[in-house]
Amino acid sequence: MKRIIQIVLSFLLIGCSSVEIVENWKNPDIEVFETNKVLIVGITSNAKAKRQFEEQLKREYQARGIEAYTSLEVFQPDFTTKKQSEESISQLESKLIANNFDAILLTKVIGVEDKIAYKNNYGEYDETHTRFKEEFLMYQDIFYNPDYYNEYKVYHTESSLYCLCPAKDRELIWKGYIDITDPQNINETVTDYVKLVTIVLEEQGLLVPQSFQEERVGDAAIK
User: Fold this and answer.
1) Source organism's superkingdom (predicted)?
2) Domains in the chain: boundaries
């Protein structure tokens, strides 16, 4: 299983952009967690990316027989863009529990980093040329010629899974830190991100694999 996961994760690093999990943590007191009804929340200023992310992850849960709703279906349109008080969040949690939600998956951008990658190949440069003048003239183009370097952004994101447990505080079950490097196509980036989150949650025992859910449905139909 882990070998398969490694192959898929490597696939997500191919293309114009990459989506890579940097670190993830799971509550050691929870071995397996199966949600029945989950709320998916994405916090970003990019409305298109937010909507697409929530909808795609919603479909992943639904494919496993789990009720799933996006924040756009539950919150007021400006809920994630306006500052909320502790009281309003507590009221929201109580409302969700009353409506049988037992989990929230929250994803947000926590930082953006500008990067520059210099190209290693400088044409027909002969490394035996050690004169100051030659080397200086050769490398000064690095700073003035955009062909010598690539500028790109790395978005640092965080996804967290919380249990809405009526008898206790809202417990953190899992947290993952995911980097998105040089995103150029929203559709591809969101799809890769959702794939990665889904794979990691399955590996951690926090989401039933779709194949296993299909077996359950098949067994139930036979009975």
Assistant:
1) Bacteria
2) 2-111+154-222
